[in-house]
């Protein structure tokens, strides 16, 4: 791109802080319970899966942010790791573009991605055979909050950006109205033409940055 895309916030920062908090708490508990051999026990044990999940999430958010920064045009404004006021939830990425606002949930999963639609009951989102349908509930809350803050003028879209997962080579999967995309395909959508002017993009991004501060 001729101009650098405007970006605010540090992707993955809150997830890394949570990982460090959990690691420190675990180490402190181990030393308190085993004063003499705590250091040895810590050196021999693996980090618990819930603790590793936070660093994996941070890595994914950072990877998505790098791609958006490299591939989005200068008329796209990016906000990373934003706090949802009054909750413990954060929004991984907000992209304000000529085509509207995109609420992006970055996920680093491996395995095949499927949307399974049974004859009876609701559709399910499966990743590597595991039911991940609840991810859409979290994204829906974020989208609703951004819609309330952005007003009626710009469309607000929700999307999952998946790293390492196996998406179909042809077509685009969607689940409950939210598209499941690789990074490059996501950036093509963010760079699409729209009715919002450069000034409108900038003003809306500034307003959303105030409404959703850095986490």
Note down, in words, how this protein is organized:
With 215 residues, this protein is α/β, with parallel strands linked by helices. It has one domain (6-211). The protein is built from six helices and nine strands. The protein has helices at 13-33, 38-44, 49-71, 134-150, 183-190, 198-211; strands at residues 6-8, 77-83, 90-97, 100-116, 124-127, 130-131, 156-166, 173-175, 178-181. Strands 1, 2, 3, 4, 5, 6, 7, 8 and 9 form a nine-stranded mixed β-sheet that branches. Strand 3 and strand 4 form a beta hairpin. Helix 1 (13-33) packs across helix 2 (38-44) and helix 3 (49-71) packs across helix 5. The radius of gyration is 19 Å and the shape is globular. It starts with 5 loop residues before the first strand and ends with a helix. The model has no long low-confidence stretch (mean pLDDT 88).
